[in-house]
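Hi all, posting the design record for the shared folder.

TITLE: backbone redesign
STEP: 1 of 1
STRUCTURE INPUT:
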């Protein structure tokens, strides 16, 4: 495959393989414009899978900001990165008797038994990344599952690697089979790489929660196994690359050397910092985490009042070093659209 020039921008209007990317200049809000006014005096609980995950933390911050705007109380419970921790958090949430619950960053199937208790108690639930079905009426009694199109995110990351690598792309893919959406994303990355003529050297299933202990030795092992044929590392989440750099540095690989890392989600602050400094990550395909937090609160406001969900699906952005230079000191993808004002107008706030 002949190497082609790639769109080395972030939030700059352009098209990659038919996929529109957001623009740097302020754009109109493309979400809902109508909906119920704010329900007064509600309390909600955010069940965070693991607040060490930058995507989950970003969404949680957005929920807290939006809840303050709508006038609701928020309690955040951290599952701590374990199945048992998430089960315990659901039990704590039930004891608080909230008006609504936000499932933040874990698969509803994993907690099916516990969530059946939430449904039985008639507590509305909305979610971020709770499974492969995006939008309204997600499985497990979830009113709305908020996300970008995960398959689009995966395709953009894979297409970047192919465009960057030219004729000799060799990819290692990192995923976590604990989550069905992670499997689906990794599968789409693999399909896209192979369809474009690249080579998938290895498909690595390693838990996100264990990246701090696993990624160092795993990186060293992969370097020994594949050597220079390993040109790109692609993962379903930025967290994998939080712990890869030291092993690469120990092997004498510079920060902008191969294997170049690219993430199919979620656009964490740490990832932005690595990309900006050219330290072992070249791109991420970021989600508008803060906006998604506002959307979760809006969807929950619809749910508690018996209204239909909005069906809104947000758009991702390809984040590169060149694009970050245009954003000044910002280390998050926050669309330059008046989404806060739009939601406040819907809520009458």
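Okay, here is what came back for every position:
SEQUENCE:
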């Amino acid at each position: 495959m002949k190497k082609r020039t790639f769109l080395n921008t972030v939030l700059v209007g352009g098209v990659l393989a038919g996929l529109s990317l957001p623009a740097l200049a302020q754009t109109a809000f493309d979400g809902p414009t109508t909906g119920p006014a704010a329900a007064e005096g509600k309390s909600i609980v955010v069940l965070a899978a693991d607040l060490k995950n930058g995507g989950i933390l970003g969404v949680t911050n957005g929920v807290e900001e939006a809840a303050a705007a709508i006038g609701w109380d928020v309690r955040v419970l951290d599952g701590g990165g374990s199945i048992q921790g998430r089960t315990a958090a659901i039990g704590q949430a039930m004891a608080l008797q909230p008006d609504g619950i936000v499932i933040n960053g874990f698969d509803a199937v994993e907690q099916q038994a516990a969530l059946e208790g939430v449904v039985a108690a008639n507590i509305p639930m909305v979610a971020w990344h709770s499974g492969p079905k995006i939008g309204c009426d997600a499985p497990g009694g979830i009113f709305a599952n908020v996300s970008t199109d995960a398959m689009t995110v995966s395709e953009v990351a894979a297409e970047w690697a192919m465009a960057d690598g030219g004729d000799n792309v060799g990819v290692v893919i990192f995923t976590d089979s604990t989550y069905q959406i992670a499997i689906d994303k990794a599968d789409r990355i693999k399909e896209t790489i192979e369809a474009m003529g690249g080579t998938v050297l290895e498909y690595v299933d390693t838990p996100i929660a264990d990246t701090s202990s696993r990624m160092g030795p795993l990186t060293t092992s992969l370097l020994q196994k594949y050597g220079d044929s390993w040109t790109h590392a692609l993962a379903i989440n930025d967290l994998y690359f939080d712990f890869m750099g030291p092993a690469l540095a120990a092997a004498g690989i510079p920060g902008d050397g191969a294997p170049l890392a690219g993430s199919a989600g979620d656009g964490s602050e740490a990832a932005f910092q690595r990309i900006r400094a050219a330290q072992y990550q070249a791109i991420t395909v970021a989600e508008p985490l803060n906006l998604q937090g506002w959307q979760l609160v809006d969807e929950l406001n619809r749910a508690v009042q018996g209204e239909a969900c909005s069906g809104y699906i947000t758009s991702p952005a390809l984040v590169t070093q060149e694009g970050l230079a245009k954003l000044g000191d910002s280390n998050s993808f926050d669309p330059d659209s008046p989404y806060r004002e739009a939601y406040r107008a819907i809520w009458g706030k």
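COMMENT: Residues 150-286 form a domain with the Rossmann fold fold (CATH 3.40.50.2300).
Let me know if anyone wants the other runs.
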